[in-house]
Amino acid sequence: MRQVVWRAIYEVLAARVRRPEWSFMNYGYASRAPDDALLVLERRDEADRSCIALYRHAVAGAELAGKDVLEVGCGRGGGASYVSRYLGPRSVTGLDFSRAAVALCQATRAAPGLSFVVGDAQAMPFPDGSFDAVTNIESSHCYASMEAFLAEVSRVLRPGGDFLWADLRDRDKVDAVGRQLEESGLRLRELRDITANVLLALRVDNERKIALMDAWIPRAFHRVFRGFAGLEGTKNFAEFESGQKRYLSAWLVKDGPG
After folding, report:
1. What are the C-alpha distances in Å from 220 to residues 14, 25, 94, 223, 224?
2. Per the CB 3.0–4.6 Å rule, which of 73, 90, 108, 245 could disulfide with 239?
3. Where are the beta strands (DSSP E) in the chain?
């Protein structure tokens, strides 16, 4: 049921709100550390700084230059576009179950080696060993089976490839997702709780998101969108504040000859 609801929301937003300026749907990442200011962006990307910073955090440590990268759950394409334009990969493929979202990406996101395809995270339309890296940002909480998804990630990764993941979970599901990652057949290099960074990003971006909602989102969808966006005063925001909901990031590697 949860997967059906999420799919319906994504499909409606992709079909009804086709503004190319809206390129990210993640909660973002912010830090008071000095190196946060080292994220240098083009003027057109500056408004999405916190959303891009979540990608920057997730891929930190992995070398993507000259690599074939897959993003599973690419949404509106902003993350795949960022990786393609800033990190020097040979190719970036964005995969999403939403036909409307993929059509929007194909029409509005252009960069060398960047492409988008429709597909299921739990049954990906790619041969074994197709990619050097797989990213998955704030998407896996929608999947019916995390285990099936992780098996597919392992299948499409080449030996030595990286899996770069970030997502939210209810507090009582944190241990379970840790076990799922550890038992995936991939080697878990790092698992971090970044709830404080995500909550800071939600606070920093709150007023901007309200303004964008008022400008872009049909009024009939405002109530749903407020929760979807994690605005202050919503259940999602309150659960991050109270610790009932946690946000994690992980880096895993497929061992074997590179």
Report:
1. 15, 19, 30, 7, 9
2. 245
3. 68-72, 91-96, 114-118, 131-137, 157-170, 187-193, 245-253
pTM exceeding the 0.85 threshold for the entire prediction: yes
- Written as six digits, the tokens of 254 are 């497929």
What are the strands of the beta sheet with 187-193, ordered from one edge?
Answer: 114-118, 91-96, 68-72, 131-137, 157-170, 245-253, 187-193
Tracing tokens 């079909």 back to the chain, one arrives at 15
- Alpha-carbon 43 to chain mean position: 22
Q: Which two tokens stand for residue 152?
A: 């597919």
Question: For the chain, how far is it from start to end, CA to CA, in angstroms?
Answer: 40
Question: pLDDT tens digits for the chain (258 residues)?
Answer: 555 555 666 666 665 665 566 779 899 999 977 666 678 999 999 999 999 999 999 999 899 999 999 999 999 999 999 999 999 999 999 999 988 899 999 999 999 999 999 999 999 999 999 999 999 999 999 899 999 999 999 999 999 999 999 999 999 999 999 999 999 999 999 999 999 999 999 999 999 989 988 887 788 878 888 887 899 999 999 999 999 999 999 999 999 864
Distance CA 206, CA 204 (A): 6
Q: 213 and 39 in contact (C-beta within 8 Å)?
A: no
Q: Please state, in angstroms and rounded to a whole number, the distance separating the CA atoms of residues 217 and 4.
A: 21
